[in-house]
Amino acid sequence: MAGNGTNDRRGNLPPLSLHVPEPNFRPGDAVDFSHIGVTEPGAQPRPDEACEAAETHPLCNDLIRVLGDDDKAHGPWDPKLDPDTLRRMLQAMATTRAFDERMFRGQRQGKTSFYMKCTGEEATSISASMALADDDMVFPSYRQQGILIQRGYPLVEMINQIYSNAGDKLKGRQLPIMYCSREHSFYTISGNLATQLPQAVGYSMASAIKGDTRIAATWVGDGSTAEGDFHAACTFASVYRAPVILNVVNNQWAISSFSGFAGAENATFAARAIGYGIAGLRVDGNDALACYAAERWAANRARANAGPTLIEFFSYRAEGHSTSDDPSGYRSAQEREEWPLGDPVMRLKKHLIALGEWDEERQEEMDRKAAEAVKAATKEAEKLGTLGHGMHQPFETMFEDVYEEMPWHLREQCEQSLREKEIKFGKGDPK
Amino acid sequence: MSGSQTKKKPQQGADGERRLNMIEAINDALDVMMERDENVVVFGEDAGYFGGVFRCTAGLQEKYGKSRAFDAPISECGIMGVAVGMGAYGLRPVPEIQFADYIYPGYDQIVSEAARLRYRSAGEFTSPITIRSPYGGGIFGGQTHSQSPEALFTHISGVKTVVPSTPHDAKGLLIAAIEDNDPVLFFEPKRIYNGPFEGYYDKPAAAWRSHPDSATPEGYYKIELGKANVVREGEALTVLAYGTMVHVAKKVCEEKGVDAEVIDLRSLVPLDIDTIEASVEKTGKCLIVHEASRTSGFGAELSALVQERCFYHLEAPIERVTGFDTPYPHSLEWAYFPGPVRIGQAIDRLLQE
Questions:
Q1: Contacts of B113 in chain A (CB under 8 A)
Q2: Does the pLDDT of residue B2 top 50, yes or no?
Q3: Are B225 and B180 in contact (CB under 8 A)?
Q4: Using only C-alpha atoms, what is the Rg of chain B?
Q5: In percent, how much of chain B has pLDDT > 90?
Q6: B78:A236 CB<8 A
Q7: Is B168 a catalytic residue?
Q8: Is B142 within 8 Å of chain A by CB?
Q9: How many angstroms separate the first and last alpha carbons of chain A?
Q10: Quick one: B206 and B234 in the same domain?
Q11: Is residue B146 part of a domain?
Q12: What pLDDT digit, counting tens, does each position of A198-223 carry?
């Protein structure tokens, strides 16, 4: 008889069983994060930016940290930023936090359908973005509003988009927070996760093909590294040594699924770089200086034609996934309090105070002014309408930009929508 | 076929005209566009050094360099994703998907990204991409080298879908597709790469050289997307077809001596509705022929359009001749294929009315 039979290898082994990951803590559980390896700030080596990728690979299982418990910067990754730069960083963070607060409330007040905060993750976008050139194209996911704010995009434009109002440059076509601004080298956000990764690689390949100096950087959450697009992006980045930075913001949670469902029980996200043979760095995502330093290292490496870098920012999603999510249904409320890497804004503030370059009064003033600026922008945007209170765009705009030129079938459908409008609203504009 | 297509001396017909097969015509279009526009880049699996498994990109790497014509990893998701990024940068990418049957891993990047980039960014980012892909059956390719997935793309807002049927059209349509600022699916019927196919798999294959539509002018010319071609004029019925089926349907009409008007649609989106309407209003009868399977195929859309717009001119129910709703078979390929018998029966039914 051919074949090996079926019983030989079974012996006395128990039947197979499936491993389904389970987070350490569920609602009501006491939280103990002592298993998270919090490394010594300043203890991680900083390889040359043009080094062999393999030289970075020990850092994929380490955690690059700069800011210590003494609020001082330590070690070779200290980017040695001047106080003005640090204050600008803090300012962008304060504005982002004030913006998140107000937009979240706006959603609850019925001014829009949806909002997503980035609380606790500000450094992974703002500090990283400050390490890039303003014309490096960023391919964000949905929680990088800090980049737009850091790049000086007007708050009122952001709110117009969130309200899908008459001032919305995107003509009410996109879900709130799916911003886009070519002028700010901020690529249009997709709600289909991780699609932006191979696109960022392609953009950077194009830049290399044309002998440009601009690079690309992209952001993705821990959960969506499971998408095929992430792996396609890593392959293409590796194969063509594309001048791109792949940032993974590991905030531990993908809606209600913990990072274990993207493989975090078995390997770090930075360690994906090892298999692809690209540079990889694992960074304290709540340490603004470490975030800046890592992104700058990767940007310099890319610009020197030395290839791509995969960065894991190890952080924590302090709030719910979105306004549609209630995290008390799946995780312990204590996690946020017990998070061992602290809050990025507080840590940066304390560092500036420790340098003698800042104080609590000035911080209060900064926070107050940020809240006022957001409030003023909100009032300005509300003049142009809020979502669900009237249709703010001419019906024709629904049919424009599907193609460069409108084909006959869309023209016919556009005319139909205008007939429907007249039947429903008469000759006037819809209220 | 070996070495550089672009250096090869073109064949000449008896009338002295430049004769190309469809592979050479596609290669010629790529050559013309890469010469004219430095932002045109071609890439795909085996598409670089080797010049593609069907040799459509042969010689381009040698002529334009490795950074404009290169091989890609076996990742259609990655090929489409990087094409979208290159388009956003300002290049005019012409990626090749080796077989249309392999396009599905790249589907999300086409449908959710390339197709909607202009819309969702209100015109700040666009996808001037032409996705070339050999397509269709008739070569004993089995399930994974024979499919005709055009309806999966004609259903999508924001992409155009083009299927050429001759070398002359392939060149002119491909140039128009590459110059188009929207994403275009350019499906190349591989059964007619080397010669026209009239449905008789058991007869010797013909070469393009003796066919009038292999006359392919040198240099730049384009055929506007959305303009059908009436390949045979007639009064008795209208036949709507594209790709390989244009030749098969035309042959059946000739053999049966039917005074049919055969329309090669060339481009499905945008669709030349005016030519279709004018013809059906004249003939009163409409036969739709495609290789793809039947249910929710593009023929269903054509049938609905003809019914909606020409109802009072119709003298018989609209007929659809298609592949069957099975996976594409291997050994029974010619039982599956919508050949002369299936088309002939449909014509008989229409003319009996």
A1: 190, 192, 195, 199
A2: no
A3: yes
A4: 20
A5: 95
A6: yes
A7: no
A8: no
A9: 80
A10: no
A11: yes
A12: 999 999 999 999 999 999 999 999 99
**Strand boundaries in B77-194, DSSP class E:** 92-96, 130-135, 160-162, 184-189
Q: Least CA distance to B72: which residue of chain A?
A: A236
B5 domain residue, yes or no: no
The residues spanned by each domain of chain A are: 53-382, 395-425
Return the residue matching tokens 């279709």: B276
A85 is written with which tokens?
A: 């730069």
> CATH no. for residue B61?
3.40.50.970
- Cβ atoms of residues A240 and A202 within 8 Å: no
Q: What CATH number is associated with residue B273?
A: 3.40.50.920
End-to-end CA distance of chain B: 50
Query: Shortest CA distance to B332 belongs to which of B143, B90, B87?
Result: B143
ipTM of this predicted structure: 0.97
Provide CB contacts within 8 A for B155, sequence distance 6+: none
| 8 A C-beta contact, residue B114 and residue B69 | no
pTM here?
Answer: 0.97
Q: Cα B206 from chain centroid?
A: 19
**The CATH fold of domain A53-382:** Rossmann fold (3.40.50)
Whether B24 and B78 map to the same domain: the answer is yes
Q: Give the whole-angstrom CA distance, residue B350 versus residue B346.
A: 6
Contact B85, A205 (CB under 8 A): yes
Instruction: Give the structural domain span for B338.
Output: 229-352
Residue-wise over A108-127: b if at least 16 C-beta within 10 A, else e? eeebbeebbbbbbbbbbbbb
